[in-house]
Amino acid sequence: MASKSLPIDQFVTALASKQPTPGGGGAAAITAAIGNAAAQMAAAYTTRKKDVESGAAAKASDLIEALGTAPFLKAADDDAEAYAALQRTWKESSMPPEEKSAIEARALGIPTTLLEDCHRGILKIREFLPYCNTNIVSDAKVGIHTLAGAARSAYQVSSCIVGSVTHMNEMYVPSHSHATNNPMAQSPIRQHQTIMVNSPSDEEKVRLKQLLKEIRHLEDEILS
């Protein structure tokens, strides 16, 4: 079942289980959706008569429209689909290079876009804070901190897309059914090795880290 359709308790149970998805990418996306929802709630409470008169309600309406939760919920399912496709690239040796490259690019693009969207949402919430209903401004700040955590998580996912490959070790062990002094009767050792199969370029990592630094600065600002 799609992550976005699971009750929260079932999603958490699935996340905690020994299965590839949902994983870190899905957790980051769902967290981002929760962050947006918290900020939207703060905006929804900034619609009193005096908010309308001051123009704050219009700012609140703009924020609610800008911070949709649906794209983040979809990203959780997109991440699971992308990882499943990525697994195929490790197993299907006959896969055309163009198809493999496209799959790897999509797997890398989802957490990257998630980080960018979190950064964008945080900036919009920060702009809204001066207009927010003071009785509930803490919830708007919760939105910022939650999106910040999702952004950092997305960075970790984008930097650590790994795969498990099987290779033939050059060492050999004797076959139980043949004489041990017969090289042709010896069996190769199969070993599994986890390797980095997809990661942002150094230049892209610098760009993404800069976005995270900006997010951290905004967090420090609202904590002071």
Concise structural overview:
The protein has 224 residues and is an alpha+beta fold.
Q: What topology emerges from the helices and strands here?
A:
Elements: H1 8-16, H2 24-44, H3 49-54, H4 56-66, H5 70-91, H6 97-128, H7 137-159, E1 161-174, E2 186-198, H8 202-223
Antiparallel strand pairs: 1-2
Give your account of this protein's structure.
- A two-stranded antiparallel sheet has the order 1-2.
- The model is unreliable at 162-180 and 183-197 (pLDDT under 50).
- Helix content is 65%, strand content 12%.
- The longest helix is centred in the middle third of the chain and has 32 residues, at 97-128.
- It is built from eight helices and two strands; from the N terminus they run αααααααββα.
- With 224 residues, the protein is α+β, with helices and mostly antiparallel strands.
- The two termini are 43 Å apart.
Instruction: Give the beta-strand count.
Output: 2
The low-confidence runs, each spanning 5 or more residues with pLDDT under 50, are 162-180, 183-197
Overall radius of gyration:
24 Å
Measured as a percent range, the helix fraction is 55-70%
With strands numbered from the N-terminus, the spatial order across the biggest sheet is: 1-2
How confident overall, as mean pLDDT?
A: 85
Number of DSSP helical runs: 8
